Amino acid sequence: MSVTPADVAVGLDHVHKTYGTHQPVVALDDVSAEFVRGTMTAVTGPSGSGKSTLLHCAAGLDRPGSGTVRIGGTDLSSMSEKRLTELRRSRVGFVFQAFNLVGALDVEQNILLPSRLSGRRPDPAWVAEVIGRVGLGDRLRHRPAQLSGGQQQRAAIARALVTRPDVIFCDEPTGALDSRAAADVLALLRSAVDEAGQTVVMVTHDPVAASCADRVLVLADGRIVRDVPQPAPERIPGHLTPRGSSRPVAIREG
Ligand SMILES: Nc1ncnc2c1ncn2[C@@H]1O[C@H](COP(=O)(O)OP(=O)(O)OP(=O)(O)O)[C@@H](O)[C@H]1O
């Protein structure tokens, strides 16, 4: 099936990124990739291969030295920092290994923070649905430090979902979690793709997480060295929603 420009949620075209000037490190070396709407892509590869740099450039958190990045057809290179921030707030969600919740705010305040920052009042019914999906209805008044790692990551996913972003970028979302909590997080990300049609781009070292994606990109030395569609389904944990299924994903409460 051919991909039209309208199908592309995020596109990188000949992206180069170098750090430092005296002894420059080439982090991305002529990377081109298209992330299709309504799909989950895992980006994997050895330490230092450029995964986080790719994610940061694709999400508009960092600017490439050359090449172009497009989100929903909008070229980020000519945008001012202010417009880039607005675009990130309205179109992009982030989930990080370290959760990045604000310790002084409770769960509900954390979940609503991106909406507050963008000055948009989210639909209360949608907020309730997101909170229900991540199974944190009875933890809304808790601070992040009072939650388990898995609960904190589910709060971070709710925070990413609440603005209904086109794309959710994840950097090692299961890296700090045990296997059960990781499975819950992967199920939530999968349902964002399969049920809400969102696009997930996930950096991961975890082969189980990668096997939940529709496609795996492997980086080495700043280049894409493999592009694997449909990784082996037998490696997908049995309790996750299979690709293409519309079955709801049950998340444990608590
Ligand atoms: N701020 C920086 N200054 C200098 N070099 C950097 C910087 N950030 C990354 N690098 C270098 O760029 C290269 C790619 O780094 P990057 O963090 O993207 O790799 P990674 O694949 O995500 O690694 P890991 O799996 O260890 O997180 C590495 O050689 C790294 O040392």
From TrEMBL:
SMART domains per UniProt? AAA
Tell me which residues make up the Tyrosine specific protein phosphatases domain.
33-95
Gene Ontology CC, one term: plasma membrane
Q: Name one Pfam family in it.
A: ABC_tran
| Region called Disordered, residue ranges | 229-254
UniProt keyword Nucleotide-binding present: yes
Q: Which InterPro entries match?
A: AAA+_ATPase (IPR003593), ABC_transporter-like_ATP-bd (IPR003439), ABC_transporter-like_CS (IPR017871), ABC_transpr_LolD-like (IPR015854), MacB-like_ATP-bd (IPR017911), P-loop_NTPase (IPR027417), Tyr_Pase_dom (IPR000387)
Which superkingdom, per the lineage?
Bacteria
Extract the Gene3D superfamilies matched here: P-loop containing nucleotide triphosphate hydrolases
- UniProt protein name: ABC transporter
